[in-house]
TrEMBL record:
InterPro entries: Disease_R_plants, Leu-rich_rpt_Cys-con_subtyp, LRR_dom_sf. One of its GO terms (biological process) is defense response. This is Uncharacterized protein. Gene3D superfamilies: Ribonuclease Inhibitor (3.80.10.10).
Amino acid sequence: MSIPTGFETISTKIRYFHWKGYPGKSLPSNFCVELLLELNLKESMVETLWEGVQDLANLKRLILQECRNLRELPDFSKACSLESVDLSHCERLSDVHASLLSLHSLISLNVRCCSDLKSLKSRYHLKSLRELDIDYCKNLKEFSVSSEELTSLDLSETLIEELSPSIWLCSKLRRLHLFDTKLHNVPIQELSCLTFLKELSVSNLQNIDNVSVRMLFDRLRSLRSLNLIECCNLTEFLDNITQLSSLEVLNLEGCSGLTKLPVSMRDVSKLEFLLVQGCTALRSLPELPPSLGVLDATDCISLETVNISTISSRPWNNGKKMFSFTNCVNLDVSAIEEQAKYLLQKAVEEKEDVKVCYPGKKVPEWFGNNRTQNDSDTVNLSLSSHTLEGFIFGAVVPDYLGLKLEHEFLPPVIICRFGSKKTEHFLALEIVSTGHVILGSPPYFAEWILREIEENKENHEAATHNPNLSFQFRMGGFLPPPLPTFPAEEGGVYPIYASE
């Protein structure tokens, strides 16, 4: 084998070796590894590292990420100090040498996206392994690795049909993800004993039902994130959800049998994300906690009533708040419009960015005369002498866009003109479906307008100076180069004054 240029001058006492994109099929036989602490060959062309057993007593970290030609690993039985191994995206690696999974020094192992890997098994209950990433190993069928220190395990996007009993020995697990596997059931009694869990994600499990969820709520009280995806035998939640006092994320996407959530939802005081997309049997949403920042009820086609008026518009760590009722075709629109008005008025007062989206052909009646009329896409606004605090804006995405430009992203854009000055604001950066209304309270857009108004007043001596504003509502291209814009179906602006 020809030795890649550069190896002739490498010291035999080297401790850290990093060669991104190393071109050789293996390391040369004279490459000294005895003192090596870290070996990083990320994105290299290696098919194997070396032949036989090397003295790796000092090696602590091995990085072979995206070595897409790597087919096998050597014997690591003498790597008694090895702590971290990254094999992610080694797409041709079909096996992990058994010696690697016998190292009690190993703390982290990442085999994410090793698409040829079919089995990952260890004969030992490891002593130090804390993090194990196996997701997107799409051909992995056999898994049996455990550790008394394991805190994170992700088996998502694998072919695993049954969980090894050894998993339930991992009593310190804090993160367990089982998205999109071939599992049909998990032992609920054993799962509920993992009392340190903070994140739990499962999908398509037949034995996730009302009874099993009650048991989980009773035992897993440290949960911060709970994802029960497409668990169709779950029909309702019971009031003991309040025992999840730290819960921040509740994802029930695709739970098509779910008919209702408990009244006690309002007492889940730290909940920030409630995701119920595709819960097609859900008819109502109860009063929700003030802490909520994102509610996604997309495709809840049976949903009729909701209550978002109790949600606080105050700041939260994730910034913008969004409440989406996309394709909720049976929703009581008049009720959601009044609740949205109350919520958005509070948002203007708190200078927070809040958006509400729901099916509709017109902006709410409470916009009054400040709506686009006839064929015009512009609203001319005369301001009151009262102190202006901000605005609520509304726009309707026209139906024809879905036919005319189905592959383009054309969000609603508001173009504000004040005298010779002009600015614009995209009312939504998310994709908004045709035939839907989007309402928002963009604080930074309002701040620019208010600042221009004040500067204009200072430049006029007349105390009665009453400036005019115009707002144009278009559907505009978001990404460059600028795409043609089209008029929104309807647009409206609702000024908020300090006396309101």
